[in-house]
Amino acid sequence: MYGYSGKILHIDLKTKKSWVETKPEEWYKIYIGGVSMASRLLWENIVPGCDPLDDGNPICFANGIFTGTPVPVGGKFGMASKSPLTGVIGDSLSGSWFSIALKRAGWDGVVLHNSCDKWTQLFIDDDRVQFNDATYLLGKGTFETEEAIREKLGDDQIRSCTIGPCGENLVRYANVTNDGRQLGRTGHGMLWGHKKLKAVSVRGTKGVTVFDPATLNQLSFDISKSAQGKDTEKYRVYGTATGLLAQNKSGVLPTRNFQEGVYEDAEMVSGEYLDKHHKVKVIACAQCPIACEQMSIVKTGEFAGAMTGIEYESLFANSSNLGINDMRCAIKLITIADQDGMDTVSMGVTIGYAMECFEKGVLTEKDFVCASHPEGFTLNFGDGDSAVKLAEMIRDREGIGNLMAEGVRIASKKIDEERGTDSWKWALHIKGLEPAGYDARSTKTFAVGLATGTRGGCHNRSAAYDPDLKGEVDRLTVDPTRGHVAAESEEYAAVYDTLPLCKFIRRSFTGKADRAGAWPAIAKLINATTGWDFDYDDVDLIGIRATNIKKAFNIREGWTQEDDELPWRWKHEPMTKGPGAGVVTTDEELEYLKQLYYKAKNWTEEGLIPKEYLIKLGMADVAEEIGV
Amino acid sequence: MAKTSTSKYAYIECDPNLCVGCQLCEYMCSYTKTGEYNSYRSRIRTVRVDEVLITAIACRTCENAPCVIVCPRDALTQDPITGIIDINATKCDGCAWCIEACDFGAISINPATALAEICDLCKDEPDGPQCVKWCPKEALKLTTPDQSAQRTRKKLIAETLVIPIKATEPK
Q1: CA A359 to centroid of chain Cα atoms
Q2: Are A69 and B27 an interchain contact pair (Cβ–Cβ within 8 Å)?
Q3: CB contact under 8 A, B27 and A281
Q4: What domains can be seen in chain A, in order of their start residue?
Q5: Tell me: the pLDDT tens digits for A478-511?
Q6: ipTM for the complex shown
């Protein structure tokens, strides 16, 4: 087999035993890699119905088909567990040298079972597995932890996935980090912390070979050169942060906890402002010729020295969404989240929720009393200093930070139960996951994409804001085409997330990002790597299968269509400004859209997957368990 | 001991302002030399410190190269015209003295054979150094120190003189 070793490494964290599972080529042709293979490994290895923090919930890594080759942006891997934040599938993706080390060590996937009895740094050294004491790493930030491990083990090519203090403190939306990149959303870091797993490190010294290197090199070279052109310019020059002004113009830039979609000070927190005043350098993920990570630093004031990569999603959540127009505060907040290991979006949206609680009198100054702030503090929108204080309290689970570390779903429930309030109405989440930076009242195709999303409110898994905002559909109304538009957008993204390839390369194959432009080129890359005979339809099936295995997992864990829901605010409280003013996505519209979507997915009216459809997809064993 | 200098020969230079740390140079170097993609077999290595300090390093083709001088088995020789260091695999026993002698960390031990390996500027490749060919950001150049200085001078002039002149042109 080319492109794969055919081997999955299983490690029992409790007994410290490890064993190797071999998979047939046919299995790889169905699940490929990335989020799809990680989700399939989770399907196979979880104790169905277990609590996310039970030992029966494993950590599943799945490598990429192009990892370790020169295929541009192919150095990525997927990770899946049942999410402690959402209770449904938590599948994350990261560009990384970790995946390349894993490939060179000879593993297509790794499954970690059970929990450690003390803090552990796991070391996969080619085909040896070592359990190292992690006491010396405790309290260290993510990047710092990786450096300390390289120093201790004496090889700068050792790559690690780590958790920071947030994961150690069991912040429910803590991340797992590698090389400054995040396995974000869904709280993997909390699960790792719960398992007392501080880091997983890999050294791979073997070479990667492919079926037809001459062809693969030529294809990769051409794509790499074309990726220096106009099609990737916005990522290379300003990074994703350039989207902020565009979203503001469209009236979908979440402002003051999603109350409005237009932020009056957007210019002051734009990607362009960032570029002019804070940019240090642009850096790349592993194997990426685009390079979009805008490393940005605070040069003046209280937060001078804070530096991290700034993405649009991190930026909206910690600027406009908090009414904060001081870029320095936004960078500081994002730096805390990145270095100490928590999700920038969930953190920002949770702080936004707390700010609204404060402004509406649900929380008062006294509620913020803690050892670090004995007088408490006020938390109005726009107050960057207080936002930073709360972020640190969340990280340390100190005072009310302990509650806010649970995410908005649990925090609002507890606050409302204790105080008889209705703060759940401004607790923005989908299946417990705080949403990404596009207001979905006035992007109705995206609304159904988010509501039905298998991991909750995620812009990476459903990119249906794209047809909405490009005007390919009328985003303010609904019509019978939307089910297909949403399903196709999700499946399109799932192809990239499964290979995985970064979506930013999508226009660089042929200049056209649509299926006709990208799929034949991707098929050529797959065939040169593996020696398979994939065509357009086979590539298309990758995304369809990925979305179905994830959905099947959720169904087995007890999903019902009531879970495909939108935040109350988006259904009942219209915005007052911008192109989306006066519009909501009503319950009736959502129900209508959900039915259209289920139909487009070939599912039943209840949103379940028919047996024969799963069999047709080559997933007969899944059909047996959850098919109807 | 003779003083090393890099005044004469060409070598691979990396501009740290342009290098984004993607490591494609390492994959293509190792592929060119071994037929496999493997950073451990690359003769050019990327280095990253503090997230944003990134560059790549390969043999600097020193004159009076200390690696050549120090080799106890005379396995290393330097081409007097190109400055390229050759490591004779039958003489080398992997003692790593050359690695210790190199000021740039540009020599590495092949984990498969335990022998030393070094950049040879792809002298057998018709289109020259493959890392330069592949670098997506044009951070890598085959250059002599004098060429490097010439580029720096040009850049300096462009930035400090030409732009102000243009800016004062009437609209």
Answers
A1: 30
A2: yes
A3: no
A4: 7-203 (3.60.9.10), 237-426 (1.10.569.10), 444-626 (1.10.599.10)
A5: 999 999 999 999 999 999 999 999 999 999 999 9
A6: 0.90
